[in-house]
Amino acid sequence: MVLLNISDVDISYGKRLIVKNCNLTLEKGEICSIVGESGSGKTTVIRAVLGLLARGGKVTAGDIVYEGRSLLTLNDKEWRALRGHDISMIFQDSGAMMNQTRRTGDSYVEYIRTHESIFTKDAWAKGVEMLGRMHLPDPDRIMRSYPFQLSGGQRQRVGIAMGMTYQPRLLLADEPTSALDVTTQAQIVRQMLELRDEYGTSIIIVTHDIGVASYMADKLVVMKDGVIEDQGDRDHILHETDNAYTRKLMEAVPSLGGKRYV
Ligand SMILES: Nc1ncnc2c1ncn2[C@@H]1O[C@H](COP(=O)(O)OP(=O)(O)OP(=O)(O)O)[C@@H](O)[C@H]1O
Ligand SMILES: [Mg+2]
């Protein structure tokens, strides 16, 4: 079953055409990795899906259809219902996105209370439960801590926990592991896979790490200069593609946690 269909999409910033004729389909429960060099348009594509392009950014052609409904025509109210609930995003450094002057738990409670009417006490308990599911030790202490009192990996897992609170049907992750050491990277990769297996969440993960991409993904998408240069099943892209650019990109597969992924 198709969950998301991006068809013939162009995206511009101001007058500058950045992403050209993007076509990408994501099935329910499927994990897709977008790889490609810096500036190739990876972040732009997933931000467009969430209706969160930076100022001046606009989808100028094509359509983005989620569960049979165009995302390009949603109003603010419809977005509020969908974003953070059905469709969530994890950013490269969730820690930096968090309010540094408030305890993690207070931010988490506020997030929960924008999505459901629930007592503060119950929202707090829900936050603790989600942090526990992320295998964060001592979730109570983490809720009572300020972001600067947590490690980068802990903050990132708090961000992932928040993104998963409502078991989104679609998770968009932009370099979720880049800021982390390899051990934490491997944990987070495993957690994202677990979420897919448990909840059937579809995931688009943007990463410059081919190791992470190929380990997680069912489908690989290679971007270059705003164009999807190559895409297909993981094994096809890794081992069989005729595309010279992809082959060059795949030549140097990095290792993660001491293990090679492919
Ligand atoms: N807010 C913006 N205003 C104008 N141009 C932008 C803006 N954000 C990105 N761009 C341009 O769009 C192009 C694609 O950027 P994008 O951030 O999507 O690349 P990326 O593939 O995510 O790169 P990276 O791997 O470095 O994160 C770049 O040429 C960039 O300069
Ligand atoms: Mg980016």
CATH H-level superfamily of the domain at 1-86 and 174-181 and 204-262: P-loop containing nucleotide triphosphate hydrolases
**What name is given to the CATH topology of the domain at 1-86 and 174-181 and 204-262?**
Rossmann fold
Low-confidence stretches: none
The level of helicity is: 25-40%
Measured by DSSP, the beta-strand proportion falls in 25-35%
Query: Mean pLDDT across all residues, rounded?
Result: 90
What is the class of the domain at 1-86 and 174-181 and 204-262 in the CATH system? Alpha Beta
Sheet with the most strands: spatial strand order: 6-7-8-3-9-10
Number of distinct helices: 11
How do the helices and strands follow one another from N- to C-terminus?
Answer: EEEHEEHEHHHHHEHEHEEHHEE
What is the 3D form? globular
- Please outline the major beta sheet: 6 strands, mixed
Query: What Rg, in angstroms, do the CA atoms define?
Result: 18 Å
Q: What would you say the CATH architecture of the domain at 1-86 and 174-181 and 204-262 is?
A: 3-Layer(aba) Sandwich
